[in-house]
């Protein structure tokens, strides 16, 4: 007893009190006390420091933790529960629970990484989400939904009727009508409980709040000071986002003298909880650690925060957290208690503002550490946010505190997730709420009179939404925007934002500030359906604040063209664009709000206009305007040049006005209330000025005029057009030009445009034009580009009408047009289309509504993805000058469309599509098309094209002009069609183009066109010109028809002449077209046939390609398949075998192209090969890896837990050529390593290289050896008995000799030496030195890889490993062929065939490189396993041996014995056959011993066959030896079936082995899969087809052997359950089953916790696809040391599960990860696809994902074929330039 006592901890001082303490008594004492708080505090003051935090917390044991937990519950919490309930807590709580009305809200709080679902059809906004359980029970699972993984925090919105347009309740949360939800739950509780609840909750909550916000390290609040205060302190370390893990770990090791491991654990906890004590002791001791930490971390940045805190303070804080959790648990039992807690929390002191406990918590949020915040946020979610009524009250408090919270948050350096401000998503997005109800609640609420409801004035109750209420009451919109503007303090002199000299710290703050925009978005996310005057006022106030913000952005980051010198420093531009991008949705939402109310829209328009004029005030005035005149028109404009003056891309005020202007048109406000609009104040030239400058800037950048301004400008231009920004940038600028042009004289508009493009002079006078043509080439080219850009701009201004409000279209048409033009480039995947479309605030593009009407879906194959293809009927809507095309898109689309038209046999003209009609407000835009200035421009360009010699024009210029002409003609045509008479068509373009040009000496535009039609240099444009002329004729005819009555005679003269000419032309054209079509059809047919052929014969084709390659190697080798076709019964083993040795092998070196015969004495030829460890066939992944130094590999266990696989690409080289090549690779690698770090795809140090021909990963070479000799038919074939006798004699002699050699003496008599057997004979090495050297090379590679040891040529295990890789490779290939149902022979690709044959022949000769006695010893030991030998010890039992390995080893090692036999009497072939027979019998026994025991009842009408009888006989013999260990089986049929199936893989592997060993052609039956295999196999192996005869015929000889096998103690032990029993046939390994629905995996992973850091969530849960283990990847917590290096969980797992190779699924990323060794890895597409046939790597899109079985099988096949390492090699080779990933850390 005494001894045991000392082992235990000293008895706790508390023990006595522990036992005497009564919670019940304490509670009743408290109840009687006058001042409850005082009593409770006194209790806590005494007990808390004595229970919690009693020592260093780093080494706290779980027992210690349990003790703490228990003491807390018994001494601290239990009295509180007694006090609250007035009875035994368990009973009391159960009673409460009975009456509990659970919240209708699900409120499930999301863990990090948990899947969340949002319905794209029914969710009020994308922040409304469901948990998995609710989702599966909801109607939305059949809708279009989005799936994402939660970042943690936030909760399930199930049950919140306001979050869902439809189906707000899942099955579980559908409200039951048991109690009126309006009723006050507190009224359901007994009054005394209510009273006690109030007092206890307020005491405890106040205690917790005080403690968590407590800032003194050494003092405690009044009443909590401990009775005795020792000198015990903690050194507390806090986290920040400035220091890295590495810095913290390093510092801690120094400061507190801990191990690396402890430091990592400290750092992990600090990161997770926000603080952690790193030292415990007296004040001095802790202070010392603190100073070291501060000193060490203050060098680069501000030091880590460290505080030395008294242990009692830490203890109370610790208990405060426990108390909060306790509150959270207690209120789960009763909604009444929950309501009470809400009231207590929000109860404010009479006069002070923000004095409630919740306020205090919120306002001190940024001061608390992460762990504390998490716990109180959790409590807020469980209490206030679960109570519909208090959610609102809390929201108001929250909005009130908003500004201060945000300010604190800005200064705080924690992530937003843990900040209380992240709650805004829960609060601001509640769209509708009956405030009447809210009001009622207040009125009826009689529990707390003091509760401050005075804040809520009457007005707010008329507003129907919480967000709206906050907007009106708390002016939330304005508050947010003001807070935002205040926090962006960097301004220039004009008050605009200026972000240059942008430091990292500022960037961090700026990131913070952006979260405000998110809140603004929540506020605006749902548009009001009804407006109150208050809402209008507040919204407009907010709008005004927003305009102030935009004004600060207008003109940001101006640029000036750099001439001469290149800019010195790239100016900052990203911040401004980030801001623009973030605001894009806000701007769109504000416009949407405006569009719902006329009064708001008009007011907003006014405000915006006045803001704009404010901005315009800075435009240069006072300067002399310049006057321009052209084509008889005159206009005045600014003196301004983009190429010389400042210009800015940021014009948000202009653009907002453009947006509002379109709304005026769309809502028809403009036509209904023209008098209310300040349209008179608009100055169109001013409106267009800034957007035009911006567009000219883009044109000049394209023209190369801004090259010296560097990349920042290029980037800005890129984003200006990019889909993320263009809606509120480029698009709006075009609209503003349309606005201006529709209000101006079109001639004036165009002249200003010409002037801004700095092209006016070129078109205004012929002189200039001439001079311009003669100017230097660069200028000409520049101007040409500018003219093209200008023409394009005009096309856009008149042609871009797909904006609702500009043209008469709907949003639907807009999206459809975008898609149509994307698909005109090429067929695209869903995600590509989504990326090309702008998203709205709800992340929707509208794609799904439209896509099926324009495109058809093509499903993906095993690779690639599903594609959408444009339906042909939409081709006619293609517009070459679609404004969202980049130049590259445009030319690709043009090419694709022309090709398509040619294929369809149409002409290649790409005329403009019919534009939709304009809205009235924009109606006058069409006049641009027929105005004089444009006609002059068109005339000029056409004129240049007629005289092409000048070089001052381009084809694209012409093409654009033709397009403009086409648009004008379409316009006229359409107007004519829609008109009733000729009179009301004011548009008369055809008439105008027949007038001769004014300035030019030449004819009219029409005449110019006609003369261009047949110009030989304009062949490309011929079709479009023809189209134009036809249009002109059509229009003329139409006009004539309408006016035919009066002008019949005029047209008659021309008519017939024209038609004859037309007819002629048409006929010629038709013929030419027919001829072309015929040609094309033939071509297409041919290519189709070819394609078809290739597809049909893919396998063949691939093989023939490979063969083509291999033909270099195997040119002269006759195919073994074709030899000896006449021989009916081919035999591959034994004296009757047919050899192939006479064939000469001629091969060609891929490096020097020289031909060479394979000979043992010749120059060595080698085959590039890759040797790797493999666990693909393993039946036991739990087996520990063998100890490298002492592992004896001679007997392979049948679980095949670790094998060595060899593969080759089949490419042959001279050994010397290869050596030179490899040396060069090594040298290159050395040089490379000096230059860069990181890894290549291959590891030269480990001998890896890439095949010089096919770049296949290799790490060694196999020497090619000649065929084995044909059997010597002169020697006779001894029977088994005779052979065994001779062999036994030979072995005995050898044994004796070995003994004598090692011990010096040998006991006993020397055994008789068989005739001709010479022990001391040294066989001559049959190989040249060069071949021998290569034999050693390959031997060492296998040895090195197989055992992971350094090369050692003397090691006796060297030959064993070579035999092992030979056997294992054959076995794995046999499995593959079997599972893929391919024939055993003839279906392997050449390279595998070559590899196996070289490998086998090599294995049979490799013993020549090892000492002879080594091989002899091996053979002796191997044979002893079959034929027990008293001299050999430690022979494994028959169930512990893989017999195929045994066969290969014995056959290959026998050669060395045979070499000593000089008698010439027995052949090596007879020995092989006998060995095969013996091993086969052993296998039969093995199969029978392990055959399944359940007996299947089968009708056995027919008599037992001979096979069945013999099987039963053998089985009974076994039972005789083993007794009851073997079950009784009566069904011979069943047994025989087992045997046949079990033995087959062995026979197939043996056939492959002997085929390659002896080069014997396989029989025809084995070249096809299917029946008849068994007999063919047996005869090929020279076995009776009734295998049992093997045993039967040698009964007397074999019976004792079987007896010995069975009597091995291992057999009995094995069968009685001493380990994994391997049954035959071994089932092939597959990758684990994956669920069909990806979210199941996500869910699994989200509940997975890191196995090392106490129940923590893992950041990167990763699934092993081989064994199904879930791992905590890419994290410090789960790093493991492997060979002296820390590696991540995945890499570590590969060493136990896959011998260094692994396949994983990274669940959060939806990515497959391949890892090989420590340095190599790659990502691979996952087998999960969405409905559009695409993977979602990174899980960014959120479409539901489903398993694609074919793709998964493909990955599996890759693994089973041992192809993973090669895939990794190729991937790394392809991505060398990318940043190297440290794969070992995953
Ligand atoms: Zn839920
Ligand atoms: Zn639910
Ligand atoms: Zn739905
Ligand atoms: Zn060569
Ligand atoms: Zn190769
Ligand atoms: Zn695994
Ligand atoms: Zn972990």
How would you portray this structure in words?
The protein is α+β, with helices and mostly antiparallel strands and 1786 residues long. The chain has 64 helices and 25 strands. The protein has a 5-stranded antiparallel beta sheet. A 3-stranded antiparallel beta sheet has the order 4-3-5. Strands 13-12-16 form a 3-stranded antiparallel beta sheet. α28 packs across α30. The radius of gyration is 44 Å and the shape is globular. The chain starts with a helix and ends in a 12-residue tail after the last helix. The N terminus is likely disordered. Bound molecules: zinc ion (7 copies). The site of one zinc ion has 7 residues, from loops.
Quick description:
With 1786 residues, this protein is α+β, with helices and mostly antiparallel strands.
Low-confidence stretches: 1-11, 423-464, 1045-1059, 1096-1128
Please give the alpha-carbon distance between the first and last residues.
51 Å
**Backbone structural class:** alpha+beta
The global form is globular
Name every ligand kind in the structure. zinc ion
Could you describe the largest sheet, including whether it forms a barrel?
Answer: 5 strands, antiparallel
Strand content: 5-15%
For the largest sheet, list the strands in their spatial order: 18-17-21-22-23
| Rg (CA only) | 44 Å
Mean of all residue-level pLDDT scores: 81
> How many distinct helices?
64
Number of strands: 25
Helix content: 40-55%
Name its key features:
1786 residues, alpha+beta, 5-stranded antiparallel sheet, 3-stranded antiparallel sheet, 64 helices, binds zinc ion
